Amino acid sequence: MNYVYSLKCRDGYYIGCTDDLKDRVERHKKGYVSATRKRLPMELDFYFAIKDKYKAFEFEKYLKSGSGRTFIKRHLILYSTSRRSDK
């Protein structure tokens, strides 16, 4: 299984793709990933599980595009924020 994931960082969000989500998130949190090392602390915000590796990379690429970031803001981040406030 391949995972496209989003991390909520100190200064915003990070989108990535991996075949081992648990290990990759731990590596981010420990500062082993140069792209997020200076953006700690962070937490996993959401992820998608996708069987096809190439589709996962294409979806990651889309989420990093302008329309993909709009999709995240409109459908995922606002939804997860409103759901957290319901608790």
TrEMBL record:
Q: Which domain of life is it from?
A: Bacteria
**Short name of any one Pfam family annotated for the protein:** GIY-YIG
Query: InterPro entries from the entry?
Result: GIY-YIG_endonuc (IPR000305), GIY-YIG_endonuc_sf (IPR035901), UPF0213_domain (IPR050190)
* Gene3D superfamilies reported in the protein's UniProt record: GIY-YIG endonuclease (3.40.1440.10)
Q: Which SUPFAM superfamilies match?
A: GIY-YIG endonuclease (SSF82771)
Q: Where is the GIY-YIG domain?
A: 1-73
Instruction: Give the family this protein belongs to, as stated in its UniProt record.
Output: Belongs to the UPF0213 family.
Q: What is the protein name for this chain?
A: GIY-YIG domain-containing protein
Biological source species: Candidatus Portnoybacteria bacterium RBG_19FT_COMBO_36_7
